User: What shape does this take?
Amino acid sequence: MTEIIQKVKNLSIGFKSKKGEEILILRNISTNIKKGETVGIVGESGSGKSTLALAMMGYVKHGLYTIGGECEFNSSNLLKMKNRDLEKIRGRKIAMIPQNAGQALTPNLKIGYQIDEALQLHSDLNEEEREQKISELLNKVRLPSPETIALRYPHELSGGQQQRVAVAMALAGTPDLLLLDEPTTGLDVTTQAHVLELLNFIAKDTGTSMVYVSHDLGAIAQVSDRIIVMYSGEIVLEGPSRDILKKPIHPYTYGLLKSIPKLSLAGLPQSMPGSQPQPGTMYRGCSFFDRCDFSEEKCKNNSPQLEYLEELNTSVRCFNYKSLMNHSQVNQTVNKIKTSLEDKEILNLSEVSISYAKQKLLDQVLNRISDDNPTVKDININIKKGETIALVGESGSGKSTILKSIAGLLRTKGGIIKFDQNRNLSSDLKERDPNDLRIIQLIFQNPDESLNPNHTVEEIIAQPLKLYFGLKSEELKKNIIDLLQKVRLGEFYMSRYPRQLSGGEKQRVAVARAFAAKPDIILCDEVTSALDVSVQAAVLNLLQQLKEDFGTTYIFVSHDLAVVRAISDRVAVLYQGRLCEVGPSKDVYQFPSHPYTEVLLGAVLEPDPDIKPKLVAEDIVEEKPPQKGCSFQGRCSRILGDICKSEIPPWQITESGNSIRCHIPLKELQKDQIN
Amino acid sequence: MKLDNIYQEEKKSNLAKLSEIIITMASRPSGFIGLSILIFHVILAFISPYIAPYDFKAINPTLMLQAPSAEYWFGTDDLGRDVFTRTILGGRTALTITFFGSLIALLWGGLLGIFCGLVGGKTDDIVMRIVDAFLSIPWILAMLLIVSLLGTSTEVLIPALGFFYGKGIVRVARAATHDVIAKDFIVSARARGHSNFSIIWNEIIPNVRDAILVEGAMRWSWMLLGFSSLSFLGFGVSPPTPDWGLMISNARGLMSFAYWSVIAPIVGLSSLIIGINLTADAFAKALGIDRSTKAPV
Ligand SMILES: Nc1ncnc2c1ncn2[C@@H]1O[C@H](COP(=O)(O)OP(=O)(O)O)[C@@H](O)[C@H]1O
Ligand code: SF4
Ligand code: SF4
Ligand SMILES: [Mg+2]
Assistant: This one.
């Protein structure tokens, strides 16, 4: 039997509500972390996964307290330990990498110095040994030329490199247990894949046990030996990674896997209804009851216990797990998206370029564009009425910039934006008439930021109705109720404030507000990125339904290629503000591919242990687009040589209408570059 | 599953919200003490003319510098006036003038701060420079100049104090607006084409109001101290109107043998300042604004 490193026994953590009730955030958690294994803890936000990970290093967040149970490490209970003793363990025996650890590096201290500090704190090495250890650690996290990296400041590194430094610092004390809380969330797809690969390497190389906390089953699938699924503060399923992902025997996990869009499937996956109950709202019965496809009468009033199944080495909390065992695999069905494409162009961008650089006074006077290398350049896209076109690319590729200009929030430097074939839209809000503003509406990434916290749902949806249609009193109210119904929210939501809604509900309100204007085009900026996976599919389905009902056109920005695959008719791939590939979704996701599209597709993390990401290009970040030649030259592994550096590649068009901008002939691009 | 959960609250009327805030404030010991002191002073200011036992300006040479007694609770001053009468009346002018001064400070400071935060860029820079430059002149000198040129009437003092104490509010309002302005709901309102006025009124003010009010309450207590200093120097309230600053100034030379005539106004003034301070602090806590992390100025 392998040695157990950390033993969590009957752990309950909670807080006291204003009314003095004890509210549980973790409910009777028991699990063991073995030496050398990587355990993935997955669950949606609020399921208590971070609280559990923090407890594993003896830390309980301010405002929370331990109600019962223990976290045993080296046969002592961390939760009862004195701070002085904990300090000896934290960093040395148990290290933690929190979310955005890379960004949390001290900005004005050199990387080498910061690692040295960690070494001084967490090891007994002398100065010389430490120096050696620094370059050893930087090597281990595979940073190029450790000597020069050590002399740099954090801001001189890319997001992925910063994250690697954070990993190096965590390894400084050679911990036995490494806790990672959402370590790749917020990083670009390509960077994410690289960091995960590094973690896998470190787990193998050092034999450190890892606890990997994430909401992202795709990331969990790549690193974990074992997976713990949490729901509403409880463990609902725990077992070997492959079994959990391939044959989940708990309805929540099953539903989750069914609702995650996959690259291989075009169309929208089925959504899971409802949302996770807030802590303190569950009184009896199974906490998953009202979202469960397998529920029975008895689930309503009886709570299932966590049951260990010897033959599967799996624990499950469900009365009905046997009926799930009969399903051989998660069979995912998708609703094919219907697009009633009219052959009418609704929006046309031609030669659009946008620059954030300040114009020099002289150029302003002469009214000429000074920046010859703008952030976004040469954008030519025709958008047909009723279609969904997606813009994809890593962060900084100019997706949101283009949306802002279409919305009139950012002035273009050049080019024309034309609506309905004949109406020129100024990129300056002040020059648009109210109707021009009404026809284009925006939905943002994070509904917490896009809904005014001091307005009720009623006030929020009333705004466009009053502004554009001058509605009042009864009629206004009728329209609001109508819109709420369209986004599947009841009338009683009118008096709620955003903070009283779940993430998915908030985003529905934002959708309702956008549709209140009766727009022709809706710009969706990462609208599902801030949502939990279980509600993501529901919001996507809603958007699709509304689009079919109203014939709206969507411009859909996302970094998630699987989501894009599910919802879009056409895809435009951007790198450094330049288009690389534009074409029907089906074709963009197939060869021939632009080398950059291939990199993006290769890095997608799927919740399947058999599909590993392919890392084709380095995860470096370029500050500025190159002056000449192909925008992707700096990272392209197929680069042809001088021609790519000096000449802008030509558009090549396939038979099915996919346009690829590369010097490599289409026939060559047909082939996968790895094989 | 039950729907009525602990996170649910219904939309409340403003009055209900206010009373809830006051209850939260009073549930903390410091807030309770602060509120009690403040309410005591406000009530006293209203009723003191009716309960004062003697005429505050009646000079009586035979009663000069009497020690506290059953007849003259706080003793008498160097002109034989009753110190108790003068003490309970002595906060009225200061309280009124600084209350209205604070309102003016709130108004101009808040609006200018919101404006600067909203427009940003060069205009913001320039306005803030001017505000800073103007107010880097020691305020007391400037006040003395204004008062000696325009007199010490209420119509001069209120706007002058309001002007000088608005500076901190400009900064707080500007910072709060900056935070809000970056949020997508403002971008969203802009993209819809709402007017600037509508954006300020509907989107910004509800989100910065709390921070500005708290700052205003803090400024009130500082203004009170400032105003009393003016009186102390003889530029605030003119005799014979009783005023704590003035009383302290008159009696301080007699401290060694007639301590009573100076202690009463000191206690009056400092308790009021402490009361306002504690109240403002509790107000901030009840609204969930942590002043310790967002130290203004
Ligand atoms: N200090 C706190 N006081 C009250 N509730 C808290 C506190 N910290 C977290 N919570 C609540 O605990 C639940 C679980 O939080 P967390 O462990 O962070 O979840 P996750 O990591 O799955 O997102 C959430 O509902 C959250 O609102
Ligand atoms: S116990 Fe019942 S409600 Fe709960 S997950 Fe199992 S089947 Fe669904
Ligand atoms: S043009 Fe050259 S650098 Fe650009 S993608 Fe094609 S091969 Fe790579
Ligand atoms: Mg978390």
